[in-house]
Design a protein that fits this description.
- The chain folds into two domains: 1-24 and 180-202; 26-176.
- The chain has two helices and twelve strands, in the order H-E-E-E-E-E-E-E-E-E-E-E-E-H.
- The protein has helices at residues 2-23, 181-201, and strands at 28-35, 41-53, 56-63, 68-69, 75-77, 82-87, 93-99, 105-111, 123-131, 152-162, 165-173, 177-178.
- Strands 1, 2, 3, 4, 5, 6, 7, 8, 9, 10, 11 and 12 form a twelve-stranded antiparallel beta sheet that branches.
- A hairpin with a 2-residue loop joins strand 10 (152-162) and strand 11.
- Helix 1 (2-23) packs antiparallel against helix 2 (181-201).
- Residues 176-199 form the Ice-binding protein C-terminal domain.
Length: 202
């Protein structure tokens, strides 16, 4: 009886998650967890990509405590297609395309000019309006990997200093994580386990 109840509850949860996934956008989350300085890996921040419709999207850089982004290549991403881009902070100005040290070239880069305290930031959002016939079907369509395999990068200060003082470095992403589709997969796994237990106990 308990197995039947577990199976029924799991089915309802899975159905609910399926409806949510069908209606909601599966925001892409890129963890900034690789750097070109010491430490070589860590939790440096996240970049989220959220699609509003097929021609509108938002890309948000959120930097972890202890670090700030700034200077040349403060924020960079490799856009799939073309778009008019508006940063939420006017201190971020376009550099066009260019290299992020150690992680290859990105077709969209922004600078804050320097690492003066007034030009260091913890977050910024770029609002995108697709142009030139560009359309995105899902959040994962907005960005594409560069020749080195990376989608996003940032220039940060706050790394372990050496004898020369404060150190800056570039960080980039590992594998992207889609949400809430991962919840749907978790629900699918739960209902599968419940089904197997029910089968074997019968």
């Amino acid at each position: 009886m308990r197995i039947d109840r577990l199976f029924a509850v799991s089915f309802v949860i899975l159905l609910s998650l399926g409806l949510v996934v069908g209606q909601a956008s599966a925001t892409m989350i890129y963890d900034l967890n690789i750097s070109n300085v010491n430490p070589a890996s860590g939790d440096f921040g996240t970049v989220t990509v959220e699609l509003t419709d097929s021609t509108h999207a938002a890309i948000t850089f959120t930097i972890s405590d202890g670090y700030k982004m700034g200077d040349g290549g403060a924020a960079a991403f490799n856009l799939n297609g073309t778009a008019t881009i508006t940063p939420s902070n006017s201190s971020f100005t376009s550099e066009g395309a260019g290299n992020e040290d150690g992680f290859g070239s990105f077709n969209t880069k922004y600078t804050t000019g320097n690492f003066n305290p007034s030009n260091q930031f913890s977050s910024v959002t770029f609002t995108l309006l697709a142009t030139g016939g560009t359309h995105w079907n899902t959040d994962s369509d907005v960005l594409t990997a560069n020749a080195s395999g990376y989608m996003v990068a940032a220039h940060l200060t706050g790394f372990i200093p050496d004898s020369e003082g404060n150190i800056t470095g570039f960080v980039t992403n590992g594998a992207p994580v889609p949400e809430p589709s991962t919840l749907f997969l978790l629900g699918l796994g739960l209902i599968g386990v419940a089904g197997l237990r029910r089968k074997y106990l019968n």
